[in-house]
Amino acid sequence: MRHAWLNAWPIALALATTPAFAQELDATQRQGQHLFNQSCRVCHAKPQLNSVQFGPALSKSSASGNPKAMHDVIANGTPRMPGFKHHFKPEQIDAIVAYLQTVSPSAATPPAPAR
User: Which of 11, 68, 97, 101 has a Cα at 20 to 30 A from 91?
Assistant: First the structure.
């Protein structure tokens, strides 16, 4: 049991320190947060020290703050990211965008490593 907790605490910490807390989100934003944590966090968040973050940190300023552009990028992808239009329904992508609109850029950007 102790070993399982040692492996699980970084994940629990990452979810607990999510920039927009669940009690402050409406139902759509909570759904978006859940979908983000399930499918996007693996590349767009750095859950542990010394781990690699593959994609940029996402926030309400991503895609110049344009919700339609965010939706299009999530749906269609980019040269370095797959599209999710076959994985998520349009309403689910909208929920992810609604959640990202609650994340401040400073909360999404990990601190610079100490030298």
Answer: 11
